[in-house]
Here is the input.
Amino acid sequence: EPLIGVLALQGDVREHTAALTAAGARPVPVRTPEELAAVDGLVLPGGESTTISKLARLFGLLEPLRAAVADGLPVYGTCAGMILLADKILDPRAGQETIGGIDMIVRRNAFGRQNESFEAPVPVAGVGGPPVDGVFIRAPWAESTDAGVEVLATYEGRPVAVRQGTALATAFHPELTGDHRVHALFTAMVRARSGGGSR
Ligand code: GLN
Here is the structure.
């Protein structure tokens, strides 16, 4: 089973841990550069992207995260995690930094006050079966994506699931639904990258 870290600074770490286990991975919390160096893949949970980026800087993890992702470590970000994977934030808060990895610009809290949180069926390319139950909680969307970015899902015309190389991001939260197909897709990406072997 691939060893998949969950960045455990803030956010819905427990839910991702359960989803990864159900998807056939071995999840482990990551809070230090040493723990990061040991994993075959990494999940960036939902939560508050400003807080996560500040804590990552404080824990000495921001540069190691940037280096690992740039080096091709498979990474999956949900919601706040998607924001962290964006090369650029349209409306960053003061001091807010990203890890980068996906050539896109994200808009935070994009769906607006009237529609802060909602659920909608979202067909996701590469995920077989019925649409994924998209749980959106003050979710971002990709305002623009470069040519190298695969848009796997849109909602109301906005990209809400994207992939570039070994980096995957969803604006919604499959970890809150009990449906592990997106985590299974990510686990397959991790397996492919680590040559099918397990450590
Ligand atoms: N709006 C939050 C942010 O900017 C993300 C919310 C979430 O992860 N559910 O980080």
User: Anything to note?
Assistant: The mean pLDDT is 96.
